[in-house]
Amino acid sequence: MPGKVVVRPSEERGYANHGWLDTHHTFSFANYYDPNYEEFGALRVINEDIVQPQKGFGTHSHREFEIFSYIISGELEHKDSMGNLEILKRGDVQFTTAGTGISHSEHNVHKTLPVHFLQIWVKPDNPKLSPAYHTKTFSESAKENKLVRIISPDKKHVPDTIGIHTDFHMYASLLDQGAKVTHKVQGNANDGDNKRKLYIHVIEKEGMKVLINGESLLKHGDGAFITEAISGDEIIFESVGNRTAEFVIFDLV
Question: According to the UniProt entry, where is the signal peptide (predicted)?
């Protein structure tokens, strides 16, 4: 089996319910701290957030990280110190290079429905980048029984992605019951040190289940660390739950 797989069950994540915010933390964040889960390569934060109607995060500051939101359902208003104001919906990925410093707010503008999204933080190779903002929409059809690449360090050669400033790739899929999809590990197989890491996260929706290489089972909200993967390895994902499985893959050094 390519690489070593360690499953992180959903219930082992950090958790808090603030009334207006229901949140799970894959890595140490806010009041949740676990020295075993502080980061994974350049990946520092995966928060799965559900924000109630007409509620949100007030204006706050970020610096050095690249921060992006993957919208699962609902409507999220983003407003920042660079003058950007946008309402994000399902399929949208909003990406901010915080660099030398930005401020922003995130607010659920819907009157009756919650917004459900992933917020991810990644450490770029250069923490002192100029602040920047990008949004891109990825259709349902692009994800259906396929892996769509969302973020890439080589936007010049992968123009349909959002560019990031480190060796980090993000993919997403909507996998029908019984369907399979294969991910080929990134990197140059001819390099001397071609070992890579992957993290897989299954969206927190009841009934979603994903089997990795026929052996490791992830249910909704679960994640998996894959280490010692080699560039060019093929990893097979199969949807084995009672509904279409939505999951994301992070492929990094």
Answer: none
Distance separating alpha carbons of residues 207 and 186, to the nearest angstrom: 30
Q: Tens digits of per-residue pLDDT, 68-93?
A: 999 999 999 999 999 999 999 999 99
Burial 167-188 (b: 16+ CB within 10 A, else e): bbbbbbbbbeeebebebebbbe
Q: Residue 39 is part of a domain; what is its CATH number?
A: 2.60.120.10
Give bridge partners of residue 247 from the DSSP assignment. Answer: 173, 202
| Ranges assigned E (strand) in 66-179 | 66-73, 76-80, 85-88, 92-97, 102-108, 115-122, 132-137, 148-152, 162-163, 168-175
Say which residue the tokens 């480190």 belong to.
166
pLDDT surpasses 70 at 192: no
Contacts of 74 (CB under 8 A, 6+ apart): 51, 89, 90, 108, 110, 113, 114, 115, 116, 117
pLDDT tens digits along 24-64: 999 999 999 999 999 999 999 999 999 999 999 999 999 99
Buried b (16+ CB within 10 A) or exposed e, 47-70: bbbbbbbeebbeeeebebbbbbbb
Rounded CA Rg of the chain? 17
How many independent structural domains does the chain possess? 1
Residues 6+ positions from 193 with CB-CB distance below 8 Å:
none
Helix (H, G, I), strand (E, B) or coil at 11: helix
* CA nearest to 197, candidates 231, 222, 243, 220: 231
For residue 187, give its domain range: 4-252
Residue 141 has phi, psi (to 5 degrees) of -65, -30
